[in-house]
Design brief:
- The complex is a heterodimer of chains A (183) and B (280).
- A five-stranded mixed barrel of chain A has the order 2-3-4-5-7.
- Chain A is α/β, with parallel strands linked by helices and 183 residues long.
- Helices cover 26% and strands 27% of the residues of chain A.
- Chain B is α/β, with parallel strands linked by helices and 280 residues long.
- Helices cover 39% and strands 23% of the residues of chain B.
- Chain B contains eight helices and ten strands.
- Chain B starts with a strand and ends with a strand.
- Classes of the chains: A alpha/beta (183), B alpha/beta (280).
Amino acid sequence: MDIHIQTPITKEKAQELKAGDYVYISGTIYTARDAAHKRMDETLSAGDELPISVAEQTIYYMGPSPAREWRTIGSAGPTTASRMDKYAPRLLDLGLAAMIGKGKRSQAVIDAIIRNKAVYFAAVGGAGALLSKCIKKSEVVAYDDLGTEAIRKLEVENFPVIVVIDSEGNNLYETAIKEYQEI
Amino acid sequence: MRVVNVEEITRNIKEMCIEANHFLSKDMDFAMKNAISTEKSPLGKQILNQLQENLQIAGEDMIPICQDTGMAVVFIEVGQEVYFEGGILEDAINEGIRQGYVEGYLRKSVVKDPIIRENTKDNTPGIIHYKIVKGDKVKIKVAPKGFGSENMSRVFMLKPADGIEGVKDAVLTAVKDAGPNACPPMVVGVGIGGTFEKCALMAKEALTREVGVHSDIPYVKELEEELLMKINKLGIGPGGLGGSTTALAVNVNTYPTHIAGLPVGINICCHVNRHVVRTI
């Protein structure tokens, strides 16, 4: 089913999304990948506040290529989500509503998704040029020194994603593959 | 003897880094188009169409095909009658990578130290493999490698008794484990034989062989075809979201090995299997 949603994503909104839904996201999303997650985790462990409030927000696991002068952003496709698995449950427990990435998640992340009524979306890996067209604004809001791994605030319009793990823990990577498995 | 100024190497490497990241080679493009017509899953077909559209946008608008513009892998075959002047060859190659990644608006993904992890900010150093060959030509292959798929690569030190069935199991296991993480449809490079490091290097170089061109060793050609067929029956599909196109090709290279061993390297690449070749 094709669904259009606007961020922020409340628990109620997240619960309406089901594994396999094709979703177009509009509004604000944040980028953060390996180094940014590590630093956020260290910040929380030190008892300090995160540079962004994650409640009802969406984090896109992405590090863009540099933008040419006349562009908002360079190529901007998803990176492998499992590298963030170590940090994701903590952010989900702080109210993070959604993650956009590609690839499998650990059981601990799936449990945290169910516990917090969150959602995991996949964007199409390797389609960075196409996806960059849906990003209308991009601004570094934290960890500028991390370069491509800095936290960016993006304004997106009809950003195409697929619900892979929904708030009940249904996992499209498992169900869809079984459907086409012949050996 | 032929004199080649290393500035020529730098200029070519720079251009090849930019070209590889914006235009997919003809063989890959053909394989992708062909996959759209054979894919069984409607969502899989939709994803393949998106990837096709992505390639068009990348080329027309000069935006890299994928934001992970890779670590630059360079295979360089130097004719032994060539004399380089104007500097050190390795420095010239890295200078080409630096210029290509900086001037080409490509992502700088290389860190100075694997533990300390400070970005070098120009994507150097590259990974360079040299071969000395006969003649007076220099053949350069530039193959930037993204790490989504690189991370899913494996080396298996099998026993001779495991034989060809063991090799097949190893490849299928690696592809199954990689699943959606490696941005399928994948190209699977396999190196059988040699030593621990030789099989991995062969697997990497196998990725630069044109998709659709098989090994000229009959049993290896059969193995490539059988593995591709079996991989596409795993159901992983485009984007890992189910379907009949999990891989576009399996390229296998072999080398003599020791009586006690059967090393198998599996280097997985996504559909953005970049390789540009020039001979100067």
